[in-house]
Amino acid sequence: MLFNILNLCLLFGFCVAFNFGLTRILRKKRIFQPIYESSPVTHQKKDSIPSFGGVGILLSVLAGIVLLSIQDSRLLWVSGLIFLFGILGFIDDYLSVSKGKNKGLSARHKLLCQTGIAILGMWVYDVHFQVLSIGVFVFYVFVIVGASNAANMTDGLDGLLAGLSLITLSGFWLYTRFIHWEEASYFCLSLMLGVLAFLVFNV
Question: DSSP letters of the chain?
Fold first, then answer.
């Protein structure tokens, strides 16, 4: 337990340092977040805020797996989904920055990609963990795509999505502690620390 706590502290320090370095590089390269022209005046000042902050969160997931020696296949499956959706978000941000507009992937393309990732993820789950009926399979695909879009719609105001994510992850952490799934509880903590490190980037 002490070993994992020390690794969590190391993880947080690493993530904060990475986000700090990432912010400096992005500012130096002037890779800023394009803002909707119709946004409120208070939002227009965000046009000098670096984009690609989610890269730090993705790195924290990978670092958490390595430092905490996560081997549970179910947690690795969750991590795989996080990475695939994270890559999709990276592509969306890249297109937005390269165009100089707050317009990355089109809504249709984004929805198709989200659905494809969700179907792939549930297919892996069906093959390796539990055989699902067609109805349950489709329902979970709908839930995954819906959750992805809910996060996307929530993102925008500083700290809003990260703050809500911390609340959600706290609930998962308490649940995994309640059912005595120790590896999952540390995994949840590593995600929470990654989000906290992102909030430092956000500030």
Answer: -HHHHHHHHHHHHHHHHHHHHHHHHHHHTT-B----TTS-HHHHGGGGSBS-THHHHHHHHHHHHHHTT---HHHHHHHHHHHHHHHHHHHHHHHHHHHTSS--S-HHHHHHHHHHHHHHHHHHHHHHT----HHHHHHHHHHHHHHHHHHHHHBTBTTHHHHHHHHHHHHHHHHHHHTT-HHHHHHHHHHHHHHHHHHHHH-
Backbone angles phi, psi at 147, to 5 degrees: -65, -40
The per-residue pLDDT for 24 is 77
What does the block give as tokens for 139?
A: 């329902």
What parts of the chain have a pLDDT lower than 70? 1-3, 29-53, 99-104, 156-158
CA angle 120, 137, 76 (to 5 degrees): 45
User: Which residues contact residue 200 at a Cβ distance below 8 angstroms, ignoring those fewer than 6 apart?
Assistant: 16, 19, 20
Place of tokens 């989610």: 54
**Among 24, 83, 53, residue whose Cα is nearest residue 155:** 53
Residue with tokens 């089109």: 106
Model-wide pTM > 0.85 = no
Which residue in the block uniquely carries the two structure tokens 């990432």?
Answer: 22
